[in-house]
Amino acid sequence: MGGQQLWGYLTGERPCPPTPTAPTPPTYAPDATDEVKKPLLDAFEAALETYESDRDSQAAWLHEEACAKAILFASMEVDISMSLRGLSTSHLMWAHLRRSYEIRNEALYLAVVEEAQSLRQHDSTVEEFHRQMSAVWHRLDILGAEFCASGTCQCCDRHRSQRETLRLHEFLSRLRPEFEVVRSQLLTRRPHPPLNEAMSELRAEESRLWAGGMSGESQPSILAAHAPLVPSVPRRSPPPTLDDEYYTCLRRPVWLLWQGSSP
Ligand SMILES: [Zn+2]
User: Fold this and answer.
1) Ligand 1 centroid vs 156 CA: distance in angstroms?
2) CB-based burial, 14-44: b 16+ in 10 Å, e otherwise
3) Whole-model pTM?
4) Which residues have their alpha-adjacent CB atom under 5 A from ion ligand 1?
5) DSSP designation for 125
6) How confident is the model at residue 212, as a pLDDT?
């Protein structure tokens, strides 16, 4: 919808232009002079031009509205589209769908939040774990509250930056205990480094730990993560790490922050 610039039809930001009324031709006495007739005829011609252009824009609106409806129907299961019978515009249909599915969306959102909370690095490399977390965050972004475009709203910018900080904490707190040193270094830094910057330090730390493991120090989990023949089996009950502590106190704010409401 966005690509076709049809989003405004669904949201109601682009309502149907009113139907224009055709201007009536001027009337004048049969013996009227050109001096009397000309301004009347000019005014009529101008009104006619406006009328035609209004009619064209309404026709263009109707065409685009038909496209919006077609896309909407094409992206729905038949039984869902049946529930939209009798609704005349794509805006009314969208409003109906939102009312019907918002609650289901919230349940889905909470399920993804739970999934995010249950993720741990286990035997993955930092890179693999980052990919896994990013995928879940991406789903949360799609399902969660929308933010205004960057720089247009202070409130949204603040929420966005809090979310970044929270995700940095979230990510670091789920890493294996051997990352403790670099984790506390990253967390005490002010301002907080962006996650991609933290990632390059974590990758370096991982290589360092791995090299340490290869040279004889005991780093079993790191070795496991890099040995292609060792299957990566998630441990059933990982040892308690910092994150359990984070999550006990962050569970509420995580939800509230994403919802954009204040505690
Ligand atoms: Zn905003």
Assistant:
1) 4
2) beeeeebeeeeebeeeeeeeeeeeeeeeeee
3) 0.49
4) 148, 153, 156
5) -
6) 78
